[in-house]
Amino acid sequence: MQDDLDFDPEELARGRTPGRPGAVAVWTVRVLAGLGLVVGSYLTAVSLSQSGLPLGCGSGSGCDEVLRSRWSNLLGIPVGVPAVLVYVGVMACTFLIARPSTDRLGRSGLAGLAILIAFSAVWFIGLQLVWLKAICPWCMAEHGIGLATAAASFWLIFSSPVDAGQENGTSVPAGGLGMPVICGVVAAVLFMLLQVFFSDSSTSVARLPAGENADSGPGSDRQLVVLNGELRIDVHELPVLGSPNAPEMLVLLYDYCCPHCRATHRYLQDGLVRYPDQYGVVLLPMPLDAKCNPAVEETEPRFEEACELARIALAVWRADRAAFEEFDRWLFEPERPRTAATAREYAGQLLPGRNFEEATSEDWIAERIAADVAAYNSSGAQTIPVILSPSLDTVVGRPASAEELFSILEAELGLTAVE
User: Least CB-packed of 30, 116, 168, 314 within 10 Å?
Assistant: First the structure.
């Protein structure tokens, strides 16, 4: 019997021994699976904590949108959980392959898991690029690692003979890889179908104490004090959805480029129909754009025109208050944010003459945005949108649905739906 340590030089040059998987291939799979395990565990921990975002990701960022979308979970469980389990399975398979008695089992299992990883990675990359049109760098890194792990896994599967007597050529587990591959495809398709039909948005709201706030009540000089006295608002001098003399007033801090703000804005508009004359909404643009928000270190690409859109919207308000609600609704209509150039052109159509152009140069606009940004940055909120009211504990983040927001408003403001 040949001594186990008496290896053929050609086999050693290839990084393997007869009848054993190549060490380079094994450790490549283990390292990649380990990286996937670490990133998947980190994203899972962030999702389960329901607070904050991954490092380098800000409110309203691609990470924010992707990780709070319905595609970030499976039956209410973060997709990072099954990802972690799959990577653990891949690691286990590399140890099975290292032993002759379990080699075939390890290769079969690894083939199925590699197919599952590859299909899932393509699925999630497609969702970000095509459906959500938002990129989460952490998620993309995880999917890139997944594709690399799948490729390395097949390299390992075919890297050396299964039987010790086969020193030349390559073999695969008895019966081939057909069944493991089919099982991997079926598992991936089942995963996708479960997501399509049973996953829900993972968005959730946080609550902050209202603090010492006040509302002077309906009238031409109505004043609101929110954020524990940090923000004082003259209701009649700011854009309002609904009536500024409604019994209850809400204050919305938002960004015209933020997808979660887009959804919350729509919920509040629907609520004005459901609860007629019961509340109004003061609109305070709070751009996530470093050009006018010093707390933003690096502006996400989608927010590069957030400051300009806020300025244009407030200029429309200053030029013609009657035109603002239509303009505000128009800004929020499309799935993707309007460009500043398009917004400026539309504002010019709504407001012929020089009123709009004159309004854009008013110092009041820059001062208003600066005040909103300062209030938000000192509020303790970690994301937008933020709904404030003297009668309501602050609502931070996008409600999962209009019904979730309505249940809060009914319970805490005493609103009554009108059928």
Answer: 168
- What is the model's pLDDT at position 59? 65
Residue 383 lies in a domain: yes
β pairing state of 248-254 and 279-285: parallel
Task: State how many domains the chain has.
Answer: 2
- Map residue 74 onto helix, strand or coil: strand
CA distance 272 to 103: 65
Looking at 198, 216, 243, the residue that finishes a domain is 198
pTM of the full structure: 0.66
CA 242 remoteness from chain centre? 30
Specify the DSSP element, H or E, that contains 233.
strand 231-234
CA 106 to chain centre: 36
Same domain, 33 and 85: yes
Is 265 contained in some domain? yes
Query: Angle at CA 148, nearest 5°, toward 144 and 152?
Result: 170
Q: What whole-number distance in Å separates Cα of residue 41 and Cα of residue 45? A: 6
Q: Which CATH number fits the domain that encloses residue 225?
A: 3.40.30.10
Looking at residue 102, which CATH number applies to its domain? 1.20.1440.130
Give the residue among 273, 265, 243, 279 at the shortest CA–CA distance from 313. 265
Tokens representing residue 29 in the block: 């799979």
Compute the average pLDDT of residues 402-419. 91
Host domain of residue 378? 206-413
Q: Give whole-number Cα distances, 219 to 28, 141, 216, 222, 232, in Å.
A: 71, 55, 8, 5, 16
pLDDT at residue 50, as a whole number: 60
Would the pLDDT of 91 be above 60? yes
Q: Which residue has the tokens 């049973």?
A: 198
In eight-state DSSP terms, residue 258 is -
SS percent in the chain: helix, strand, coil, step 5? 55, 10, 35
Those residues with Cβ within 8 angstroms of residue 217's Cβ, 6 or more apart along the chain or in another chain: none
d(CA 309, CA 346): 12
pLDDT tens-digit map of 224-247 = 998 888 889 999 999 999 999 999
